[in-house]
Specification:
The structure is a single chain. This protein is mostly helical. It has a single domain (about 10-90), classed as lambda repressor-like DNA-binding domains (434 Repressor (Amino-terminal Domain)). It is about 60% helix and about 0% strand. It is built from 5 helices and no strands. Helix 1 crosses helix 2 (about 25-50) and helix 3 crosses helix 4 (about 65-75). The longest helix has 25 residues, at about 25-50. The mean pLDDT is about 90.
Length: about 100
């Protein structure tokens, strides 16, 4: 049985190119940065929930406030690297591994 190809479908990459421009365009790079911050908030939230911690408990463990943890998880706040490392290391007992891509 031969599969039919739907030629009217658009890939997510093409949608991003159309909406925000190609990689390197100012609008596209802003989108990519915001998406990375969003993913970071989700990762922290998932790790916190996996450890059965409330936002308040995580905040107490790493010396910040519940509202700050909430803002990070909801992508409503920029986060300093030192604070991020404290949340991950002291609050979640995990290790941060960074990667750069050119």
């Amino acid at each position: 049985m031969k599969k039919k190809v739907n030629k009217s479908l658009t890939s997510f990459a093409d949608l991003l190119d159309n909406e925000y421009g190609k990689r390197g365009a100012k609008k596209r790079e802003h989108y990519e940065q915001e998406f990375e911050a969003f993913k970071l908030g989700i990762l922290i939230q998932e790790m916190r929930e996996k450890q059965h911690l409330t936002q308040g408990q995580l905040a107490e463990k790493c010396g910040t406030t519940k509202s700050y943890i909430s803002r990070i998880e909801n992508n409503s706040s920029d986060i300093r690297l030192s604070t991020l490392m404290r949340i991950i290391n002291e609050g979640l007992g995990a290790h941060l591994r960074l990667s750069l891509t050119l």
